[in-house]
């Protein structure tokens, strides 16, 4: 089959990054190769996010930019198919179809295994296609084996959310919680490891709510899953994201004590440091509950550090509530964080609350909060100087003889190292720190999980991309 070009643009969370990879996998057998620009592509997929405002507008403006490309191709007698996938597709699929004639297909996050069929239908002249079902058959059963691209990979183990925080659209766009069976996850992980993957990031909207069916017929939690994944030859590092404080159980904490591959760095969104706001958000825990979890995780591993998500300017948030959030930041000393101005989302309970904050107030709080976080992040980088750690070398550096990798805490680490070490986990000692990265030197050690092949291509950036 003649090769065709596929361009995918992903917005939003890591789940979308993972889904984009799987959409590419699903189209590959039909002769579609991934390309890095939309111009000239036979199929363009916009993999959208609905989490904050202007999501739909962004999609419309991207669609507008595609129009000249589509017209230029038509002039040459070729056809560019345009698909909208992801959470905007799920939430506003019909409206998208109605408003943007350029869209040939709308496919929701639970239905993208049906893309080949949809493309075939459009090509046969069956008209525009919309599929935003939550099918009974999980899409994972229909997806081909994933490909490894570099030493770091995402693996989706859980999807959806039943928690209904009052600000959030995810329960509506991604549907109810679902966990993949353990055997499925292990099979995918083993394939990735065979392909040279050394670090696996387990993904889920609430990844630690994982409750997959085990080979023993019982329900396994994330701790148990991590223990078994860590046994797969080649798997040197395990991360997971995004976890919810409510779902941190004893076994997961124990796993952090016992499983060396689990990194001492956990993304544990708290959103606010005020009990009143946490209750209004329906987070299901208070500040003290969060504190206790942090303490127990630190007791399990003394090098444990945390990142978080924060929302400022939730309806009714007072200056005092906001100060409580800053106090919690000082106390936990989050080394990284994603922070957002509260954005009212249609159909969510918080959007209907009367006490919406003025934009200027939200902006001022966001600036103050981010300044505090940056200070802590820089102090943490400085505190790493002189420290030994393992670095997953995932890309060439700027100069010959240089490689760049990631520390267990996701800091980029630059060092002099032979290209043969690309794709491996190498022991280093940190020599200097800047505000965003570390520089280190290689040291002797036996922790290197050398892959038996050299990974020549540049790895995708690890789990940092967020909405
Ligand atoms: N399941 C995860 C978060 C998924 S959404 C959790 O419960 O922690 C990712 C982040 O987007 C959230 O943690 C929150 O900080 C932010 N977010 C979600 N809805 C938002 C909204 N309406 N306005 C601003 N930020 C929002
Ligand atoms: Fe959204 Fe809350 Fe579910 Fe996270 S736990 S996805 S914030 S509803
Ligand atoms: Fe966005 Fe959907 Fe992820 S709304 S953050 S792409 S789950």
Shape summary: globular
Lateral strand order in the biggest sheet: 2-1-3-4-5-6
Ligand set: S-adenosyl-L-homocysteine, iron/sulfur cluster, FE3-S4 cluster
How much of the sequence lies in strands comes to 15-25%
Strand tally is 21
Count of alpha/pi helices: 12
Calculate the mean pLDDT score and round it: 92
pLDDT < 50 runs, ≥5 residues:
447-467
Which secondary-structure class do the elements indicate?
alpha/beta
Helix content: 25-40%
**Biggest beta sheet summary:** 6 strands, parallel
Q: How far apart are the termini?
A: 37 Å
Gyration radius (Cα, Å) is 23 Å
List keywords for this structure.
five-stranded mixed barrel, 467 residues, binds iron/sulfur cluster, alpha/beta, binds FE3-S4 cluster, single chain
Describe this structure in words.
This protein is an alpha/beta fold and 467 residues long. The protein has helices at 14-27, 55-75, 86-99, 115-123, 170-173, 182-194, 222-229, 250-258, 275-280, 287-300, 319-332, 359-383; strands at 4-10, 32-34, 43-48, 81-85, 105-107, 129-131, 152-156, 158-159, 178-179, 199-203, 212-213, 219-220, 237-241, 265-267, 305-312, 336-341, 388-396, 402-406, 412-416, 425-433, 438-442. Strands 2-1-3-4-5-6 form a 6-stranded parallel β-sheet, sandwiched between helices. A hairpin with a 5-residue loop joins β18 (402-406) and β19. It is globular and about 60 Å long. The structure holds S-adenosyl-L-homocysteine, iron/sulfur cluster and FE3-S4 cluster.
At a glance:
This protein is α/β, with parallel strands linked by helices. The protein contains 12 helices and 21 strands. The strands form 6 sheets. It has a 6-stranded parallel β-sheet, sandwiched between helices.
């Amino acid at each position: 089959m003649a090769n065709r070009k596929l361009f995918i643009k992903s917005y939003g969370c890591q789940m979308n990054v993972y889904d984009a990879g799987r959409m590419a996998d699903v189209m590959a057998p039909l002769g579609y190769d991934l390309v890095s620009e939309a111009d000239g592509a036979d199929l363009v997929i916009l993999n959208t996010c609905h989490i904050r405002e202007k999501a739909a507008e962004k999609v419309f403006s991207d669609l507008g930019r595609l129009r000249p490309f589509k017209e230029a191709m038509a002039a040459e007698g070729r056809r560019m198919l345009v698909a909208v996938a992801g959470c905007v597709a799920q939430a506003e699929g019909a409206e998208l179809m109605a408003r943007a004639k350029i869209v040939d297909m709308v496919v929701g996050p639970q239905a993208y295994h049906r893309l080949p069929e949809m493309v075939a239908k459009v090509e046969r002249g069956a008209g525009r296609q919309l599929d935003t079902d939550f099918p009974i058959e999980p899409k994972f059963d229909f997806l081909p084996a994933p490909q490894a691209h570099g030493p770091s990979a995402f693996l989706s183990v859980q999807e959806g959310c039943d928690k209904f925080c009052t600000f959030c659209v995810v329960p509506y766009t991604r549907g109810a919680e679902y966990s993949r069976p353990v055997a499925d996850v292990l099979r995918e992980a083993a394939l990735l490891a065979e392909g040279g993957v050394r670090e696996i990031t387990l993904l889920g909207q609430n990844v630690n709510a994982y409750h997959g069916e085990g080979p023993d017929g019982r329900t396994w939690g994330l701790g148990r899953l991590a223990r078994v994944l860590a046994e797969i030859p080649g798997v040197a590092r395990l991360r997971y994201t995004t976890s919810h404080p409510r779902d941190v159980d004893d076994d997961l904490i124990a796993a952090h004590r016992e499983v060396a591959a689990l990194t001492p760095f956990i993304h544990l969104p708290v959103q606010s440091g005020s009990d009143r706001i946490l209750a209004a958000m329906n987070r299901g825990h208070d500040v003290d509950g969060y504190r206790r979890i942090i303490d127990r995780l630190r007791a399990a591993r003394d090098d444990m550090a945390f990142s978080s998500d924060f929302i400022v300017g939730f309806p009714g948030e007072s200056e005092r509530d906001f100060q409580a959030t800053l106090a919690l930041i000082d106390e936990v000393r989050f080394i990284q964080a994603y922070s957002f101005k509260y954005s009212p989302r249609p159909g969510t309970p918080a959007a209907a609350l009367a006490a919406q904050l003025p934009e200027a107030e939200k902006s001022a709080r966001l600036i103050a909060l981010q300044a505090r976080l940056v200070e802590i992040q820089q102090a943490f980088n400085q505190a790493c100087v002189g420290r030994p750690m393992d670095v997953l070398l995932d890309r060439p550096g700027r100069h010959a003889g240089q490689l760049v990798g990631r520390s267990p805490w996701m800091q980029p680490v630059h060092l002099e190292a032979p290209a043969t070490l690309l794709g491996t986990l190498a022991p280093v000692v940190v020599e200097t720190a800047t505000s965003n990265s570390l520089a280190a030197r290689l040291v002797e050690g036996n922790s290197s999980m050398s892959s038996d092949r050299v990974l020549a291509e540049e790895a995708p950036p690890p789990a940092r991309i967020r909405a």
